[in-house]
Each structure stands twice: as C-alpha cells, then as structure tokens.
Amino acid sequence: MLGSTIQRELAEIMMRELNDPRLTGLPSITRVKVSGDLSIADVYITVMGTVGHQQAVLNALKHSAGMMRTKLTKLLSLRQAPYLKFHLDEQLKKEMAVLELLRKVEQERQQPEPPSETNSDQQQ
To answer: What integer pLDDT is reported at residue 121 of this predicted model?
Structure first.
C-alpha cells in the first residue's frame, strides 16, 4: 500500500519538479519495495537508452533523493519518509529476454521441417 503510494507521488515529483538535464529518455518507476520498518524504500526504474544514459539518469535520481524524500514527507503527511534508494530494474530486462526467446521458439516451431536426407534415401 505505502509502496504504491510512494511510487505514484515520486512519479509526479519526477515529472513536475525535477529539472535535471540528465533526466531524459522517459524514466519510469516499475515498483517500490518498502522495508518492514518503513526506513528504506527501494525504487526500481527503467529508462530507454544506452547503458551510459541509464546510469546518468540513475545518478540524477540518486542526487535528488533527499529533496524527493522531503517532498514525500509533506505530501504523505508522514513524520519521516523512508530513505529512497534508486536501482535500475534488471528484472524487466530478464523478462523481455525470456519473452524474446519464447517468440523465437514459437517461430521455429511454425516453420516446416526441410526433408531430411535419410527419408529420401529410404524412399529409393
């Protein structure tokens, strides 16, 4: 519950209030995991672009984490918001790779098999 609320509010803050030139390529928050004691929120993001660009966006978000935490405290009427730790979401990349492999397997299954030489030898 708190994770999804933090996700929604951080997305708004990122869109409306962060003016860092490194924040390009449509960074989006895929999920937020809040620790049991509510002290840390792991924020997972995806960014379109090269690995270098993704790292630049991640660094920009890490740089702005304190300001975003302060805004979250006020927006959510919390005594203290959790510390924000930003991570690139590698899970999404893995899911996309698995889907691509499944697509290739399906394509191979749909292609007709070429006649093998052993079959033609047996027919003669």
So the answer is: 54
Which residue segment(s) compose the domain that 56 sits in? 2-112
Pair 70, 82: CB distance under 8 Å: no
Sheet strands (E) in 1-73: 28-34, 40-46
Amino acid at 4: S
CA atoms in the 13 A half-sphere facing the CB of 50: 4
Nearest residue to 20 via CA among 47, 58, 46? 58
Confidence of residue 82 (pLDDT cuts 50, 70, 90): very high
Domain count, the chain: 1
pLDDT tens, position by position, 18-66: 888 787 767 889 999 999 998 999 999 998 888 888 899 999 999 999 9
Beta-strand relationship, 83-88 and 40-46 = parallel
Whether 22 maps to a domain, the answer reads yes
Residue whose structure tokens are 């927006």: 75
DSSP designation for 78? -
In whole angstroms, what is the distance from residue 59 CA to residue 62 CA?
A: 5
Residue 124: inside a domain:
no
